[in-house]
Every structure is written in C-alpha cells, then in structure tokens.
Amino acid sequence: MSDTAPLVSAGISSATSDSKTAFDWRGLVLPIAFVIVWYAVTALELVNTKLIVPPAGVAAQGLKELANGSFYLGIGLSLWRDLSGFTLGALAGIAVGALIGVSHLADKVIGPTFHTARQISLFAWLPLLSALVGTGELSKIIFISFSAFYPVVLGTLEGVRGVSRAHAEVARVYGFTPAQVFFRLILPAASPEILAGLRLGLIYAWLATIGAEYLLVNDGQGIGNIVFKGRMAFNVELILFGLLAIGLVGNVFNRIAAVAERRLLRWRAPAR
C-alpha cells in the first residue's frame, strides 16, 4: 500500500459523506448551541467581555464591514489569488503525479526529491519567497500553488498506480498508442483519486490564501487582512467576524467541489 493511500482515502471518504445534496438542518445544532452559551456567559459577565466579546458586538461589526465596499473587494482579491494559485498548482500536480505514476525512470529521478520537499512545512517557504520575489501578488500565488501542488500530485500518483496493468496491456494489443492508453484508459480510471486530490488541494489552497494574506501583508486587501487589521487594532469583534467570513467562504468552496466531483464521476462505472 502506498503512503499516499491515507490522503486519498480521506478525500474519498469526505466526498462520500457529502453525497446528499439536501441541506441537513442538524448541522446547525452545534453552532446555535455555541451562540446561546456564548451569549449567556457574556450577558452574565462570567468572562472578561473585553476579550470574549458578546455575539451582538460581532454582529454589529459584521454589518459595518458588509456595508463597506472594500470588504467585497477584499473577498474578490482573495478568490482571485486562491483560484490562480490553485489552478497553477493543480495543473503542475496532475502532470508530475501522472509522470511519476507511469514512468519508472521518473519515479526514480523525481520521486525522492518530491517526497523530501513535501516534508517541509509550507510556511517554511515564506521567508525564501519573500526574499526572492517580495511580498506582492506573485509570492502569494506561488505559495498558494505549492499548497495545492502536493495533494494533487499524491492523488494523481495513487490513481495512476492503481490502474490495472492488465487493462493497459489489452489496450496495447488492440493497437492503442501510448498517448491513447494514457488519455483514454489511465486518466479516466484514475479520475476518482485525482478529483479527491483536487478537492483536498482546493481546501489547502484556501488555507494558504488566508495564511499568505496574513503573513505577507503589503496592500492590506483580502479577507485574511481583516483578521490582521483586527489584531493590530485589538478589535476582537473584527477578528471574530473575519474568522467567521473565512470559514463560511471555505465551506462554500468545499460544497461546490463536492457537487462538481459527484457530477464529474456520474459517467464512471462502479468498478474499475
């Protein structure tokens, strides 16, 4: 069993858990209970309300931000960074994962370097990136592309290696060229694992987007900068609103990816 199996299995299990399209109201039980407890402990002043602010204060801060046009500009910039970095990382990840998966030589030449590099924490690359290309858009997009690259490579690699070699041999007997074997047999058969890797890559890219905006601050624009500005001003309401906005946008991304994954796999037979 490859060491990539847990990663891909986690992605597939996550996709399976979202198989129902209907909204399940039970998912609101915990947030509502949390808000009730939060309101109670602040209303009764059981905590320091300068640090644990009341929910009403966060709601008021949120309405103030929503009425400000710069909030929507920040979301737009964050989405642009996220999707740009994810696209670059995903395309490179599929190419590298497929190459390592189908070529024994590439596995021996590229594999050790890749598996060593992926042990390095993503945030450890930030000082080098900022030194080489500064703290502008380019460094943010490169960082985000790194975050998407690794899970996509692992998913693609697992999917390609899982394709039955007997099927490939039968295809060659029928006169398929190597390109036809790859695009008409290997790539479709590996698509569930590739899509699982893409979905994980999308999640990691969003986390990296927020991290890049928080740690590579230059123009102050982006949803991650909301938390940074709240920290600098010691505005706990703004910090909590920023965290809520980040979580909601990330959840929307995850749901969109789950729906896209299900629809893209409808054509596929149950067994490979």
TrEMBL record:
NAD listed as a keyword: no
Lipid bilayer topology: Multi-pass membrane protein
Domain ABC transmembrane type-1 per the UniProt entry, residue ranges: 75-257
GO (cellular component) term, any one: plasma membrane
Keyword terms, alphabetized: Cell membrane, Membrane, Transmembrane, Transmembrane helix, Transport
Pfam families, sorted: BPD_transp_1
Transmembrane stretches, start-end: 23-41, 83-105, 117-135, 141-160, 181-207, 238-258
Principal subcellular localisation of the protein: membrane
Localization, UniProt: Cell membrane
Matches recorded under PANTHER family: ALIPHATIC SULFONATES TRANSPORT PERMEASE PROTEIN SSUC-RELATED, ALKANE SULFONATE ABC TRANSPORTER-RELATED, MEMBRANE SUBUNIT
Family stated for the protein in its record: Belongs to the binding-protein-dependent transport system permease family.
Entry protein name: Binding-protein-dependent transport systems inner membrane component
